[in-house]
Specification:
Largest sheet of chain A: 5 strands, mixed
Distance between the termini of chain B: 7 Å
Distance between the termini of chain A: 38 Å
Strand order of the largest sheet of chain A: 3-2-1-4-5
Radius of gyration of chain B: 14 Å
Strand content of chain B: 25-35%
Order of helices and strands of chain B: EHEHEEHHEEE
Largest interface: A-B, 38 and 26 residues
Number of helices of chain B: 4
Strand order of the largest sheet of chain B: 1-7-6-2-5-4-3
Shape of chain A: globular
Order of helices and strands of chain A: EEEHHEHEHEEEHHHHEHEHH
Number of strands of chain A: 10
Shape of chain B: globular
Helix content of chain B: 10-25%
Number of strands of chain B: 7
Strand content of chain A: 15-25%
Structural class of chain A: alpha/beta
Oligomer: heterodimer
Number of helices of chain A: 11
Chain lengths: 342, 147
């Protein structure tokens, strides 16, 4: 008998609902994409207050797209943290109510953990161990993943997330928000050797990241070289040089972790995993025998499909905790102490 | 020492040291607003303050997530805000900002400009500026606390 999983994600900006049949996604609605398409209107940057206004419609649409009746759901999953508490509560409580009223199992799911499994959406099994890099606007974390419930955080960012550095440098260059995809586009025709921005090295922490130094270095490069007139900025070259410094640091540390742990499987997820410089840089290592996995682009940014997939895998493996409890905005740090065995 | 003062830090580690000193003068319920441009070192100073408050978690930028929460042996909860992405008072209120201000922990706020009218009385205000000549140097002005 197949498992129908219904999942909700609302940890930050996006409200999202997804329906899965076993490991396969049959619908996945994400608020910003949905409303942009439907109404052509402007979606507020931070949608936390909007979650409560849109969740019903997002859910209805997810079931309609899936062609599934709500009463067919056999497993409920919701993002439990980390995230913004006000945003998390909307989705989590909606999901709790849904599960309680239908008397089906409910699983509170770690948002970050769901990103790292998102590379495998659609597969019924995952081969452990693997090295996972979760890299987005909010996170830059390197994991050693040994099983569904056993992780070790190898590295984290000491300051800015990689995606945040992209957005902030884009702002310095006068590009629109979010600037990550724009930098990627400009970089594709720029010279990465144009200027050498520093790759950070953190003493004693070979797997940790730092991106605020690169950000400041771009700022001073602009101040020193283009103090007044910014109309002739070599945008493509600056973008390419900056992108190469950031992706170089991400790739070097991930590959080093894989080598040190003698692991040949690498999963790169999160919004920045869509960056073409990062993808191409990683794919070069396939020649050395590494298997590199990325999520489909729709599953790289925040979405409910990955929450449902993670829940399904654990439900099927009979691991994890199917119980009703509460949100935990500190989830990743709590996990770092108790679960990730840091 | 006066409750307002200014100084120059020569590098990141001096900024961290200033954070440690500020932390030792904080009391339960204090709100610290950190002003400064992109790359000026607001997160760095927040890191120093949190280090002084015995926070064991990684203190990094909450720009995307808006608020990081940490545990401190001394003050229970530390809330580290970054309002960079929030463009109006309305949005800031909608995420429950006022509720956070009422707690008895310590609140750190990066990019407080858009919450200016929502900051409680007695907020400690710290302005950080880049040095013109030296990439590592910062000019830091502190209002509302004596060290």
């Amino acid at each position: 008998m197949s498992t129908i999983t219904f999942a909700i994600e609302s940890s930050c900006d996006e409200t999202s609902a997804a329906v899965l049949r076993n490991g396969a996604v049959i619908s996945n609605i994400v608020s910003s994409q949905y409303f942009h398409k439907e109404y052509g209107g402007i979606v507020p940057e931070l949608a936390s207050r909007a979650h409560i206004q849109v969740i019903d419609e997002i859910v209805t649409r997810a079931f309609k797209d899936a062609g599934i009746d709500k009463d067919e759901v056999s497993l409920m999953a919701a993002s439990q943290g980390p995230g913004l508490i006000g945003s998390l509560l909307v989705g989590y409580n909606y999901a709790k109510g849904f599960a309680l009223s239908r008397d089906i199992p409910f699983m509170g799911i770690d948002h970050i953990e769901s990103h790292l499994f998102s590379c495998f959406i659609g597969q019924e099994e995952i081969n452990f161990p693997f090295i996972a890099l979760v890299v987005s606007g909010g996170h830059t974390i390197l994991f050693l993943v040994e099983s569904y419930l056993s992780y070790k955080i190898l590295g984290n960012t000491h300051d800015d997330a990689a995606g945040e550095a992209f957005d902030k440098v884009a702002k310095m260059l006068g590009l629109e928000y979010p600037g990550g995809p724009l930098i990627d586009k400009l970089a594709s025709t720029g010279n990465p050797q144009f200027h050498k921005f520093p790759k950070s090295i953190i003493k004693g922490s070979p797997y940790d990241f730092s991106f605020s130094g690169i950000k400041t270095s771009v700022l001073y490069f602009l101040k020193n070289n283009y103090p007044v007139d910014k109309t002739n900025l070599p945008l493509n070259d600056i973008a390419a040089s900056f992108q190469s410094a950031v992706t170089g640091s991400l790739i070097d540390k991930t590959i080093r972790a894989a080598k040190d742990h003698n692991i040949k499987t690498i999963a790169v997820s999160g919004g920045v995993s869509a960056n073409s410089g990062l993808r191409n840089g990683f794919l070069k290592y396939e020649k050395e025998g590494y298997s590199i996995y990325f999520p489909e682009k729709i599953y790289s940014t925040d979405n409910a499909a990955m929450i449902g997939y993670n829940a399904y895998l654990k439900f099927k493996a009979s691991v994890g905790n199917a119980a009703i409890n509460n949100v935990n905005p500190l989830l990743s740090s709590a996990y770092a102490r108790f679960k990730y065995q840091q | 020492m006066a409750r307002d003062f200014a100084l120059t830090t020569k590098n990141e580690s001096e900024t961290i040291d200033l954070g440690l000193k500020i932390a030792s003068s904080l009391k339960s319920g204090d709100v610290i607003a950190l002003y400064g441009d992109l790359g000026s070192g607001k997160t760095r100073l927040a890191k120093g303050i949190c280090l002084g408050l015995d926070v064991k978690q990684m203190v990094n930028s909450p720009t995307f997530i808006i608020v990081n929460e940490y545990n401190s042996a001394k003050f229970h909860n530390i809330y580290h805000f970054d309002l960079y992405r929030l463009k109006s008072e309305d949005e800031i209120l909608a995420m429950g900002f006022e509720d956070y201000m009422k707690n008895r922990g310590i609140v750190l706020i990066e990019w407080p400009e858009h919450a200016e009218r929502l900051l409680p009385e007695g907020t400690i205000k710290i302005h950080i500026s880049h040095s013109v000549e030296n990439e590592n140097e910062r000019w830091i002005r502190v209002e509302g606390i004596a060290l």
